C-alpha cells in the first residue's frame, strides 16, 4: 500500500500518436509508441487517481483498472478529450498528435498511376491549445518532442498553450524520445523554473512528474 495522494482526483492522459487517413488502407503517422503516456497513466492510477487514458494506436496492453478510449485521428482525440475536460483535475498530453492531416481521405485505394503523388495537407486542431483557452481549475501538462532548440521551443509552447508545466525531450538523443524504454527530459514550470532529469526509465520519469503534479495540486487548491 503506497502513497495514495491522488485519491479523489480525475486525471486525463493522452498517449501514442495519431493516424491521419490518406485512403482506406494508408495513413500518415509517427513513431510514438505510447510508452511515456501509458507509464504516466499507470503511475497516476497507482497513486489513487481515477485515470482516463485516451490513446492512439499502440501495441501496449491496456493498463488494469484504467478506462481506455482508443482513437485514431487527431479529430477523434479532440472529441474524446473535450468530452472529459470539464470534470477532470489534471490533463497530461503525452500524445504525439499529427499537426497536419491529408485535406481529403480518398474513398478508394489510390492507384499507382503517376510517377509522383502530391498530397494536400491541412492543419489539425491543436487540442492542448484549445484546452489552455478553456481551462478553469484544471492543471495542464504538455510534452514537447524537439530535434533542435529544445528549451526555447518548449518555453514558447508553455506560454502559447497556457500550460502549468511542459516536459521537453530532445528526440535525437540516444535513450530519449520515441519507442525507447528510457527518456531524458527537462521539466519547465510556469514560473520559468527549469529542472533537468538524468536518463531514467519512462516509469521513473512518470513517478517524478506525478510527484510534481501532486505538489501543484496542493499549492493551487
Ligand atoms: O505538436 P507540439 O510540439 O506543439 O506538441 C506540444 C504539446 O501539444 C503536446 O503535449 C501535444 O500532445 C499537444 N498537441 C495537441 N494537439 C495538436 C498538437 C500537439 O494537443 N494538434
UniProtKB/TrEMBL annotation:
Catalytic reaction(s) noted: (R)-4'-phosphopantothenate + L-cysteine + CTP = N-[(R)-4-phosphopantothenoyl]-L-cysteine + CMP + diphosphate + H(+); N-[(R)-4-phosphopantothenoyl]-L-cysteine + H(+) = (R)-4'-phosphopantetheine + CO2
Family, as annotated: In the N-terminal section; belongs to the HFCD (homo-oligomeric flavin containing Cys decarboxylase) superfamily. In the C-terminal section; belongs to the PPC synthetase family.
Native organism taxonomy: Bacteria, Bacillati, Bacillota, Negativicutes, Selenomonadales
Protein name as it appears in the record: Coenzyme A biosynthesis bifunctional protein CoaBC
Source species of the chain: Sporomusa sphaeroides DSM 2875
Annotated CTP binding sites: 99, 109, 125-128, 143, 157, 161
Region (Phosphopantothenate--cysteine ligase): 11-221
Keyword annotations of the record: Decarboxylase, Flavoprotein, FMN, Ligase, Lyase, Magnesium, Metal-binding, Multifunctional enzyme
Required co-factors: Mg(2+); FMN
Functional description taken from the UniProt entry: Catalyzes two sequential steps in the biosynthesis of coenzyme A. In the first step cysteine is conjugated to 4'-phosphopantothenate to form 4-phosphopantothenoylcysteine. In the second step the latter compound is decarboxylated to form 4'-phosphopantotheine.
Recorded metabolic or biological pathway in which this protein acts: Cofactor biosynthesis; coenzyme A biosynthesis; CoA from (R)-pantothenate: step 3/5; Cofactor biosynthesis; coenzyme A biosynthesis; CoA from (R)-pantothenate: step 2/5
Cofactor-binding details, from the entry: Binds 1 FMN per subunit.
